[in-house]
Amino acid sequence: MADSYDLVVIGAGPGGYVAAIRATQLGLKTACVEARERLGGTCLNIGCIPSKALLAASHKLREAEHGLAAFGIQVGSVKLDLKGMMGHKDKVVDANTKGVEFLFKKNKISWLKGWGSIAGPGKVAVKKSDGSTETVETKRILIATGSESMPLPGVEVDEQRIVTSTGALTLSEVPKHLVVVGGGYIGLEMGSVWRRLGSEVTVVEFLDRIVPTMDGEVGKQFQRTLAKQGFKFKLGMKVVGAKTSKKGVTLTLEPAKGGAQETLEADVVLVSIGRRPFTEGLGLEAAGVALDERKRIQVDHHFQTNVPGIFAIGDAIPGPMLAHKAEDEGVAAAEIMAGQSGHVNYDVIPGIVYTWPEVASVGKTEEEVKATGAEYRVGKFPFTANGRARANNDTEGFVKIIADAKTDRVLGVHIIGPDAGSLIHECCVAMEFSASAEDIARTCHGHPTLNEAVKEAALAVVGRPIHI
Q1: Half-sphere exposure of 10 toward its Cβ, with a 13 Å CA cutoff?
Q2: Which of 129, 90, 112 minimizes the C-alpha distance to 20?
């Protein structure tokens, strides 16, 4: 007889493995289908975790080369050991993926190794590496298959000269000239890694600005900051062709609004124009599961599709393609399946770019608030006026808080500066409890800390910052 489960999760990325763990905590007999040799999905294997390992390592190199002298520390000649840096990345990935495997064993989650697909009502087929197929029965199916890099027409990825983020994590030498196609989170992070290691980096972006989903003022400051680090930008341009040779890649560009073409030479091209949901080959069409025009799975507020018993979360459904969004959805979906009231507040999901300085955002941008017609106030505070930032010699950027003019409720927070990705979370907690800017301003913040810049920005909402 086929094994039978209360829940089978297809995909063991942050959304899938977290959902599986929460489901078992709630008493559901759970299995998780994953074809990779290691658990953790794109994030742990070829995404968030390895990229942050390289970002941290390359930042230390840059600091040793250019930052330590200001503190009275002389280090002499500094040399890059790229093989060693890649070894650090691989160790970090190995530790994280083994950690998830340990959690599966601890929680008695069955890892069904292979490619999963819906084989009929309450049935999941698992195609194994040896070609055989195992079918299991389940009361519920959760699709958590994540996303894949969006292809660019006319540009064929070989993961050698023309790479996605996957190939950009494993380059064997530092390219003299790296062209990043796309001015979003992933491209700018990987561009930062290789810029710090010595590459000339040019960003080609279809729109007239980088990080288009972020607050406009922050985006402009971010571009100026990256330009000071040596980034070059070709905005309002699109790539219409690519020719690869042994020496490198010749890209053909033209203005997004039309005009004369031009060429751009590169050693390596990183295609980073976004991601698309991975929903092919799952048997969704045969099962009658509804998809939208972008092949995303349509779900209700309980994460259930139009087919009873089939659920979906993460990058496979609409919403920001972020690991932490998928994790929260995985927890909420499991709780709903167990009869609880799982919920995700989509107004309080932070977005973070792990460059240096970091860029972080939660809630509405000023442009979004303005478009609603609501009256609002803005408070800003620069890190140049923060004592801890001065002590750290890390004064680039500012904190910006947007609050409703009538109620003072915080509508959005946008930070560019040191440790912005950590600083944003006190704002997330505040917004989760519908805090006002004054609530943040009247909360005692330790001194000297970077977090004081958040308090000062909150004070600035009503025009009474202390230190500027």
Answers
A1: 31
A2: 112
In whole angstroms, how far apart are CA 58 and each of 211, 302, 303? 22, 42, 39
Right CATH number for 351-460 from 3.40.50.720, 3.30.160.250, 3.30.390.30, 3.20.20.140? 3.30.390.30
Tokens standing for 453? 């810049």
* DSSP strands (E only) in 206-340: 232-235, 237-244, 249-255, 262-266, 268-271, 275-277, 310-312
Quick one: which of 236, 222, 262, 218 has its CA closest to 413? 218
pLDDT tens digits for range 414-464: 999 999 999 999 999 999 999 999 999 999 999 999 999 999 999 999 999
322-345 in b/e form (b: 16+ CB < 10 A) is bbbbbbbbbbbbbbbbbeeebebe
What would be the CATH architecture of the domain defined by 4-149+276-337?
3-Layer(bba) Sandwich (3.50)
87/25 Cα distance (integer angstroms): 35
Strands (E), 405-461: 410-417
Q: What are the CA-CA distances from residue 65 to residues 27, 84, 194, 237, 353 (Å)?
A: 53, 17, 15, 34, 23
In one-letter notation, the amino acid at residue 302 is H
Whose structure tokens read 């996605």?
164
For residue 2, pLDDT beyond 80:
no
**CATH fold for the domain made of 162-273:** FAD/NAD(P)-binding domain (3.50.50)
**Residues recognised as catalytic:** 447
